[in-house]
Amino acid sequence: MHAEWLEVQAAQRDPAMFRPLYDRHYEPLFRYLYNRSQDEDLAADLCAQVFLKALQRLGDYTFQGVPFSAWLYRIAANEIAGHYRQTQKVRIVSVEDGGLHGLVDEIEEDQSEAQRALLLTAMQSLKEAELALIEMRFFEQRSFKEIADILDITESNAKVKTYRILERMKGVMINNANNQTASGL
Amino acid sequence: MRMNNQYDFRKSPRPLSSEDIARHKDFDALLRQHGSGKRRAGIVQMRRLMYTGAALAAAAIALLLVFRTPGTTGDARQQTAAWEKQIITPPPLPQIELPYQQQTLPTAQVTSLEGNPHITIPADAFMDAAGNTVSGDVELRFRKLDDFVDFFLAGIKLTHDSANVKRQLESAGMVEIYAEQNGQRVFLAPGKIVQLSFESNIELVSNGKVPAFYEYFLDTDKNAWVNQGLSSTEVIGQGDLNPSDPMYEQKQALYDALAQMAARTDEAKQQWTNSNPAPAAPAKPQKSDPDQPTIELDFLANAVPQTADGQKAKLYQGAIWQISPRSPAYDQRAFGVTWQSAKLTQIAASEDYELVLSHGTTSLRLIVNPVLTGSAYEQALGQWRAAYADYERALADWKKRSDEAFADMDRQAEKDRAAAIKNREASWAESGASQPKLLMKLRHEMTIDRLGLWAVAQPLPSTPTMAAGRITDQFGNAYEQRVAYIVHPGQNTLHQVMISGKSRIPIAPGSTLWAVHPNGKIAVLRPSDLQQAASNVTSNKLVLELKEPAPVSKEELRRILQL
After folding, report:
1. Which string of b and e fits B43-78 if b means at least 16 CB within 10 Å?
2. Is residue B230 within 8 angstroms of chain A, CB to CB?
3. Which residues 6+ apart lie within 8 Å of B356 measured at CB?
4. Which of B27, B215, B375 to mutate to test the interface with A (most CBs of A within 10 A)?
5. Is A52 on the interface with B (CB under 8 A)?
6. In what order do the strands lie in the sheet with B522-525?
7. pLDDT (0 to 100) of residue B165
8. Highest mean pLDDT of the ranges A26-30, B23-27, B78-82, B338-342
9. A23 has a chain B CB within 8 A of its CB
10. CA of A136 to nearest chain B CA: how many angstroms apart?
11. Residue B208: pLDDT over 60
12. Residues B244-280: pLDDT tens digits?
């Protein structure tokens, strides 16, 4: 991290020195945006915007013990959120089978299609910030440390929030399952 | 899986490859956009003229008066400070012109001017000072400035202030370009880009590496060189060798040896890659899609497609073949036909297979995928996850080994090149040859959005300096408050220092120093004399040799400076 902070400082003095940071973080940021848009051209445009804003705001950046990438991801999260606000389209969430499997595992042992459907319904009730946490943990396989850095919270806070969200989702799933049974579905 | 809610859950898309993503990367465009965001919006400001105009003439008169009037120490400090702020100074030898090339262009069409520089101008590229598009013909004036002699004659400084640290720039060439219509300056219209391409020679330094060059624009409003980002520079060959050069054969031999070294390194890297192929990602099992038809391929039961390690065959045990949505359209009656032969071939870099069924002259081509269902799929998915994790570890390890191996080869190549060049220097010195220059030829490609002076350059590390006290010539003329020009061998830059009682002169072995007498003659201090003065701890007086006559051409100037 310290070596990267030196690179940031060099770039703060001379924007041309931003290149190593750009090269290192471009692909992961692109994938982050692509997973949330499923549109390669849109991801490219948003990625360009993220790096432009990063370069423009680089003077304000100070090292605070978290990786530089965390700051970039926050800008990216704002960009994708801004895009959906402006276009008034529904936020896309890329659901990877393995991740869904893992998520169901955390909540419920039953891996049936029915359970998966209930899970997706339960996820509809999450707020954006909660969904972002589930998305990063289960569909992008990020560690709690990485999630904490990106969301600017502590690692233990990230764990606690995750498990509270899962508990709430379980409750919603049980409720919905009971409603379906009651209505003869 | 679309829900009429706040989120649209979709199956993960086809993963993009690193190559797919890399196509979108463009750091140079990012830098340009970042730079253009800092420029003033709205109407373009009038730029100060580069060549001698009324304003510069006034500055020239003011500076000359400064030089002629010794004044007090405080005045000298002020004069030095004022001079240091100028990035363009009056040409020191106005009798030697650096001419511009001129070309009349019709603005209504794209124009491409062949030569060095090569310039391409789009249609309707120009606007006047009020922002109106210019039509009809314009006069384009441009010139290329190659080395420190040109920078000296043009009165250009090569200092760059980067975050309050003054750096000297070494240039690999500059192009200055302007346009006028009816004697009035015109400018590039917003959104219009001029393509510039030019070639230059730089001296091959002892490590043999081409440095990273940047594009700089001389912003006359800010009175500074402004970094525009990395330049697009490539080595296109050795510098021009003159067959009448007495050292021609030795230089050619060294160039050939260096080229062979480079080729051997490339070959070694290729051999390493061939012997150490990157691990292949395991194929991910595909789940059957209930909306897509499946077919039975029993006749292929004994010919399951597989990779060299048999992994795919294992993966597809229990697989059924599903017709892909990407398959060409087909007639359902085809499935009632008894086909004579079938050929199943994997389509490169995909999980699709081409199935060609033939019967006589009739054939049917389908795109099919092997898919799994239920527990077979779940089991295969679990196996794939484990295999993929192994693959990622193997890939990371391979990348590390590859990077280390290539870095070792590059380091060795650099050592070999440096040794070859150093041996050259030793043997040629023994044979009594004066400092011969080996040159690399470079081509620079630029896209510019403003007219003016553009340079390809790199910031240099600071060089040692010596204190210079009184500077006179052999006739006792004192060079107070005059500019000393210094060049170091192997650096295409021009250091400039205002001479005062406490100047510090940047020096290196073989440096040449000169100043311009008010009568236009050149007073020179040869490298040996400069080195001797630098090593003299008791006195830092420098005595220059005033040369006759005043030069009237670049060639005469080079002869006087012996550079």
Report:
1. ebeebeebeeeeebeebbeebeebbeeeeeeeebee
2. yes
3. B342, B343, B345, B363, B364, B365, B366
4. B27
5. yes
6. B471-473, B542-546, B522-525, B512-516, B483-487, B495-498
7. 74
8. A26-30
9. yes
10. 14
11. no
12. 777 778 778 887 888 888 888 889 998 999 899 888 8
Interface test with A, best of B25, B161, B456 (most A CBs within 10 A): B25
Note the pLDDT of residue B318. 66
**Residue among A16, A38, A48 whose CB faces B230 most closely:** A16
B478 compared with B298, residue with greater pLDDT: B478
- Pairwise CA distance, residues B151 & B169, whole Å: 12
pLDDT of the residue at B300? 53
Contact B162 A38 (CB under 8 A): no
Answer yes or no: are the C-beta atoms of B229 and B446 closer than 8 Å. Answer: no
Q: Which of B496, B25, B27 is nearest to B215 (CA)?
A: B27
Residues 106-145 of chain A with CB under 8 A from chain B are 111, 120-121, 123-124, 131, 139
Cβ–Cβ of A93/B10 closer than 8 Å? yes
Q: B31 touching A, CB under 8 A?
A: yes
Taking an 8 Å cut-off on Cβ atoms, the answer to whether B163 and A19 are in contact is no
Tokens (6 digits) for A67: 């990786």
Examine the predicted complex and report whether its ipTM is higher than 0.90: no
Asked, as a colleague might, if the bond just before B117 is cis with ω within 30 of 0, I would say yes
pLDDT of residue A110: 64
User: Within the 151-180 window of chain B, which residues sit less than 8 Å (CB to CB) from chain A?
Assistant: 162-163, 165
CA distance B541 to B76: 19
Residue B351 amino acid letter: E
CA–CA separation, B369 and B353 (whole Å): 6
Which residue matches tokens 């000169």? Answer: B514
Hey, are the CB atoms on B13 and A34 less than 8 Å from each other? yes
Smallest CA–CA distance from B23 into chain A, residue = A44
Helix axis angle for A97-107 and A113-123, nearest 10°, is 90
User: B112-148, pLDDT tens digit by residue?
Assistant: 998 889 999 999 999 988 888 999 999 999 999 988 8
pLDDT at residue number B56: 42
Contacts of B464 by beta carbon, 8 Å cutoff, 6+ apart: B506, B507, B508
Cβ of residue A26 closer than 8 Å to a chain B Cβ: yes
pLDDT band at B283 (very low <50, low <70, confident <90, very high): confident
Nearest CA in chain B to A41: B24
Among the partner-chain residues A15, A96, A121, the one whose CB lies closest to the CB of B31 is A15
Cβ separation of B34 and A139 shorter than 8 Å?
A: no
B7 has a chain A CB within 8 A of its CB: yes
Give the strand pairing for A91-95 and B7-11: parallel
Q: Element (H or E) spanning A170, and its range?
A: helix A155-182
Query: Cβ–Cβ contacts within 10 Å for residue B498, how many?
Result: 19
Average pLDDT over chain A, rounded to whole?
A: 84
Q: pLDDT of B176-190, one tens digit each? A: 999 999 988 999 998
Residue B189's nearest CA partner among B107, B125, B121 is B125
**C-alpha distance from A153 to closest chain B C-alpha (Å):** 25
**Closest Cβ opposite residue B10 in set A31, A44, A92:** A92
Strands (E), chain A: 91-95
Full 3-state SS string of B142-161: EEEECCHHHHHHHCECCEEE
- At A37, give phi and psi (nearest 5°): -135, -30
